[in-house]
Amino acid sequence: MLYVQINQSIPLPPKGKADIIGIETHGAGIHRPGKRGAMKAHVQKQAPLALLYNLAADTQAGAAVRGALARCGVPVRDILPAQADCTVAALEAGGPSANGAPAAQDAPAGPALLFSSLPEATLNAALAALREAGAPVALKAVVTPTSRTWTLRALLEELSREHALMQGRSS
Fold first, then answer.
1. Nearest residue to 159 via CA among 144, 170, 122
2. Based on the number of CB atoms within 10 Å of its own CB, is 158 exposed (0-12), middle (13-18) or buried (19 or more)?
């Protein structure tokens, strides 16, 4: 049997804002359910982040998006076409790296912006800043527990279908 002792508690995030499990022990000794030394699982909140797909910093759109998000204090992470078959959860976590990897076959073309774990006020401020900056990103979404399990390719294909439907209704 393996015993683990962790000396720091991990605070619980608000409901629906967590996806990483941490373990905490209270006191020393052998794990005895309901007794001092029992282990408790706590869920750690995903750090706020914007995932930028096909929005390179050296493009006009990429620079506009980055500037708007920086004004709101939202950190960004670039997602490359070579990462199209990774899950959104893996991309949020920072891996796998696509440095030097060729683009995935038939990777989605258009730019996209995914918001992960942003507080509502920050999300609203970021969307307003994007509008003010004239940042042209048609595909925007908030990462959900369900979409975390999808590959980036599947999520972007679904967002594209939804965008096309919404454009058809508004014309």
1. 144
2. middle
